[in-house]
Design a protein that fits this description.
- This protein has 12 helices and 13 strands.
- It is an alpha+beta fold.
- The protein has a 7-stranded antiparallel beta sheet with strand order 2-1-13-12-11-10-9, covered by helices on one side.
- A hairpin with a 7-residue loop joins β11 and β12.
- α3 packs across α9 and α3 packs antiparallel against α11.
- 47% of the residues are buried.
Amino acid sequence: MLIFQPTNAQFNFQSLETAITAANKELGKEFVIMVYKDGKIIFSKSVGEFTPKTQAPIASSSKWLTAALIMALVDDGKISLDDKISKHLPIFTKYSKGFITIRQCLSHLTGIESEPIKLANFVKRNKYNSLEEEIEEFASKREIVSNPGLEFRYSNVGMNIAGRYIEVALRRGFEQLMQEKILRPLQMRGTNFSSLNAINPSGGAQSTANDLMNFCSMLLNKGMFNGKRVLSEQSVKLLLQTQTTSSMIKYAPKSAEGYNYALGSWVLQTDQNGNATVLASPGLFGTWPMIDLCRNYAVVFFAKELLSEEKKDMYLKLKNIIDEQIVANCN
């Protein structure tokens, strides 16, 4: 279990405290900011009624969890990233989309037409009674706008196809698989994808700052959590590996413009060899889990205000202040 007693004896976060106070308007009335390094929380700030245990929707931050679940099933030998979706979703073959792979689903490279992710889309999803119904619509009513693997368009399409694929492949519900392979092993007791309508693997999770930090710590520790393996080192490496180039990006939300994409997360920084060193999975509602592989720390910004461009810039400014206290070990 993570040690949640903040300890910052070797760090001076006074400038971080000052910057948080100055950014009060952008952060909103309720938020949590936590920093984890070397097995413990080294900084924690809660404002309003939010605490590290407060549960709230995390929107697209859900994608990182879904991608990790897929990798856990790859570890088990149940599926492969190179599986064609037609293997278990034959309806896509009927509409000439069966050659899309799971890897392309996780990296938004399906080539299927999609809408930008907006708040209104969460309301529109209520028309679906099941994930199966949504995926059948993707197969039958959405056009192919580019060959798979060539053009990146950020959306809910690929992740939700992957979510339905594993339901059929393993003959079990998405929520059940998520609980078994990711949430229970990581002691993420405040996290679920439960819904009155269709399960939404790409944006339907509720979580807490504590839970997201457990997830981030597992990634930093190469798949280990509390002495137990959740993902293989190889799967973590693949999860954090850049899948796109800048020329492939045809649509990205404002909060992620200029970045490339891994599997479920954005690549914010790379080393001199192009390897991802800082990754994050921003959510529309203001939650932003982030890991820094060079400095070996994680930060979770957990809020319920919409993620605007101003908030993105402020989060990155706060990260830069944290960076000043933690020595990097990358070239």
